């Protein structure tokens, strides 16, 4: 009788164990899809996870439609409204779309917040250095002379008429370049599209402008298996290394601006050489992150990573902090709620904001 009871209990235990494994297996059946496309001079990547493959596929189709639409609208040289503003805006008012108006207004706010370090009117200066929108495909830089730069250093501005939904440039030396904020704006809009499909989680990456959400953790029987997204922070002088890893939970964004992303080297004779991560002692590195006051690449920092609530905020602040430099840039980060940063100086020091002190990042490049 005792042996029979033991056998029955074994059957019950193994039966429950088998049922548990079946439940775990079934709950692990999720669809993960990752796609990539070249837009606005960089690669956009979308990774999404959901319970039904058809829903995930439909979500990505809608997300790409939104990304392409906004890329066309926000191209500074294309046929969309921003391209038209740059071509005709110095002579007449140009009709704008609601998205472009929202982005231009946000750019004005970040310009004021950073005391001009973030400046969306730098398009023609950026062009003088050869940093076109298609730099990644055909980029060959040049070093303009001070005489060439001088006409473009005068006051640059633009205006928006909310009543007529039009915009105007202040003069012929102005071109709007939203490269430091547009990709973040698109990432945020794409995240909103994906969220409408009630996916488990998603990551959108536009050339280092990243936003994630993790709304629905996996349920394994009676507990939740919630895992963060782990984002590596690139070493700015060695493409094979990273500085450290940030764990991002729920809904957060991250953006990095560095002097290694779009750059070239030049010697004293202004001969141009391809850009590399490592510095070359006999050559000067020139990059696309311009100081609006000088019209030349900002110096002092070589990399800035920003954590923020939205990709647009992280995108704009990474540019602003890079231009502001170590002290003013860190002060700006510390003054803002829900914003953290990692700054790498030209002499190899790594500075983290107060909210990241417990992340154990190194204090210098290795």
Structure, described:
It is built from 10 helices and 20 strands. The chain is α+β, with helices and mostly antiparallel strands and 366 residues long. It folds into 3 domains: 30-74 and 180-215, T-fold (Roll); 77-178, T-fold, CATH 1.10.3980.10; 216-249 and 251-366, Roll (T-fold). The strands form 6 sheets. It has an 8-stranded antiparallel β-sheet with strand order 1-2-6-7-12-18-19-20, with helices on one face. A 3-stranded antiparallel β-sheet has the order 3-5-4, covered by helices on one side. It is globular and about 60 Å long. Mean pLDDT is 88; it is low at 9-28.
Question: What's the short version?
Answer:
34% of the residues lie in helices and 27% in strands. With 366 residues, it is α+β, with helices and mostly antiparallel strands. Strands 1-2-6-7-12-18-19-20 form an 8-stranded antiparallel sheet, with helices on one face. Strands 3-5-4 form a 3-stranded antiparallel sheet, with helices on one face.
